[in-house]
Amino acid sequence: MFDAARSPRLEVARHESSRAAALNIGEVLSELKHEFPRVTASKIRFLEDKGLIIPQRTSAGYRKYTPADVNRLRFILAVQRDQYLPLKVIKDHLDAVDRGDAPETLPGGSPNAPKLVSEQMGEQAEKHGRPVSQAELQGLTGASLELIKELESFGLIEPEAGLYEESCVQVTKSALALASHGVEPRHLRQFRLAAEREFALIESIVGVDAKRPDVAARARAAEEAREIGEQCLALHDALVQRAISHLDR
């Protein structure tokens, strides 16, 4: 028996009104170009590939973006631009929004995307999105100026224009913790050398895309490099833990 509810024609008609209100990718670019002049179609497709946005598809396979999709894109692009957060952190937050674990609407209905950031995410941005001065580095880590200078001398941290990136904060914290076990900065050079070897491996894998002129290719290379780096760290940790497990046998 023919089931009208499952008729493809009726399904198309059922969603026709919502599709009519949606935009194609060119129209989305027109909406966003004023606020984000460097955004491209390739960038939007890259965000889709990473699962941060899932547009509708027409029966012919063309992407259609709803007003909610455009606001979501505004949020992603604004947080990347203003907070320098990695895509994984942004995606985790958006996944929480989708589950109902975080605010789903902007305060006052404003399209200003950074206001969508939850209190916790705002704290992450403050901690990880901004380089810090030497005095702030000391305050955040409790390290002495002497330790910081030693770490610099062995190439473990390196300020840029007098400011220290997030990685410098973590290195300093770890060095301070290891110092309580008698490990001096000079002993940590092997970690820098190992990191440089691992990066050389990663660079050999993503190097072609990283050198391409288009932004989307370089963004893909950076994300792939992060993923490879995470697996390298996981492998390193597993091997060290396996060796440590032999101590109490």
Present the secondary structure layout.
Elements (H helix, E strand, L loop, with lengths): L7 H7 L1 H6 L3 H8 L8 H9 L6 E2 L5 E2 L2 H17 L3 H13 L19 H10 L5 H8 L3 H9 L12 H14 L9 H22 L4 H31 L4
Antiparallel strand pairs: 1-2
Helix pairs in contact: 11-12
Task: Pick out its properties.
disordered N terminus, mainly alpha, two-stranded antiparallel ribbon
Query: What's the total helix number?
Result: 12
**What's the number of extended β-strand segments?**
2
Detail the poorly predicted runs. 1-20, 103-129
Mean pLDDT equals 77
Could you tell me the CATH topology label of the largest domain: Multidrug-efflux Transporter Regulator, Chain: A, Domain 2
How many domains make up the 3D coordinates? 3
Strand order, sheet with most strands? 1-2
Our estimate of the beta-strand percent is under 5%
Largest sheet: 2 strands, antiparallel
What fraction, in percent, of the residue positions are helical? Answer: 55-70%
What's the helix-strand series?
A: HHHHEEHHHHHHHH
Reading off the top of the CATH hierarchy, the class of the largest domain is best stated as Mainly Alpha
Oligomeric grouping of the chains: single chain
**Class by SSE composition:** mainly alpha
What coarse outline follows from CA principal-axis ratios?
Answer: elongated
The rounded distance between the terminal residues' Cα atoms is 70 Å
Going by CATH, the architecture of the largest domain would be Orthogonal Bundle
